[in-house]
Amino acid sequence: MTTHPPEFQRWAAVQQNLIESQLQSLLPAADIVPQRLHEAMRYAVLGGGKRVRPLLAFAAGEVTAAAPSRVVIVGAAVELIHAYSLVHDDLPCMDDDVLRRGKPTCHVEFDEATALLVGDALQSLAFQLLAEHRLADDAVVQLEMVKLLAAASGSRGMAGGQAIDLAATGKTLTLPELEFMHIHKTGAIIRAATLLGAHCGRALDKKELARLDHFAKCIGLAFQVVDDVLDTEASTATLGKTAGKDAEQNKATYVTVLGVAQSKKLAAELRADALAAVEPFGARALRLRELADFIVLRKF
């Protein structure tokens, strides 16, 4: 396991605590009607996960000198979308999984109907946050941020990627087909998180935004490559979710297409590409560079 710089670890812990505290306060209390739904929403979101997407938002916000009070709202919104996607992905009609973040999945702990409503409610709450908080100096920019997250979550983004994944089960995919699927399923929200964090601060020109987007695209793909390798090599206890599930369900992964060694090589190449994209930002992109290492070098 790679040891990350102590300063980065401290920074990440501060941001993770900040986002956890924000989510605690933004989610409806469990004693508010309907109590069971609100309890399940809090169960699905709180007390688990690495909060990689909010960390990317905070890191990108440092590039544009964004106020943390703005970025934390964006980070919370993105994490709510991510949590909703996990709840729905785990349902019997999707991946049918029983373990997530080291505890029973939402539909196992509660029931399928509640889990379905949890996903619906978390998605709605994410967009409520983007609408009710001042996140950018220019209202046009903030409206663009809402559009950005909506597109990343929908049929041309995360939901579409999941549909492609379901349709591809049991089929052999080429590397370009696999990348197309994961650019949508995993990568779209990671790219949105990065750009949303940046939009909370000073305006970037098109070339600078393209650099950030390319960084996030590479890191989003690398994230999935690493996930596929860990699904093969790591234990259920280490992952916090069922290990070997992809192979059991006969799903196309980077490991089935490339093998473990070539998958690790691809992850390294994507990391190098991502680092090169943000090099012109200099010291302002330190946290983005450290996050690239955190994502790609975790527990190989």
What brief labels describe this structure?
71% helix; mainly alpha; 300 residues; 2 strands; globular
Précis, in short:
This protein is mainly α and 300 residues long. Helix content is 71%, strand content 1%.
Q: Determine Rg (CA atoms, Å).
A: 18 Å
Helical residues, percent: over 70%
Overall 3D form: globular
- What's the CATH class label? Mainly Alpha
Mean pLDDT: 93
Q: How is the CATH topology named?
A: Farnesyl Diphosphate Synthase
**Termini separation:** 6 Å
Please tell me about this protein's structure.
This protein has 300 residues and is mostly helical. It has a single domain (6-296), classed as Orthogonal Bundle (Farnesyl Diphosphate Synthase), CATH 1.10.600. The chain contains 16 helices and two strands. The chain has helices at residues 6-26, 35-45, 52-63, 68-89, 106-109, 112-132, 139-153, 158-168, 175-185, 187-199, 206-233, 236-239, 245-248, 254-258, 260-278, 286-296, and strands at residues 99-100, 103-104. Strands 1-2 form a two-stranded antiparallel sheet. Strand 1 (99-100) and strand 2 form a beta hairpin. Helix 4 packs antiparallel against helix 6 and helix 15 runs antiparallel to helix 16. The radius of gyration is 18 Å and the shape is globular. It starts with 5 loop residues before the first helix and ends with a helix. The mean pLDDT is 93.
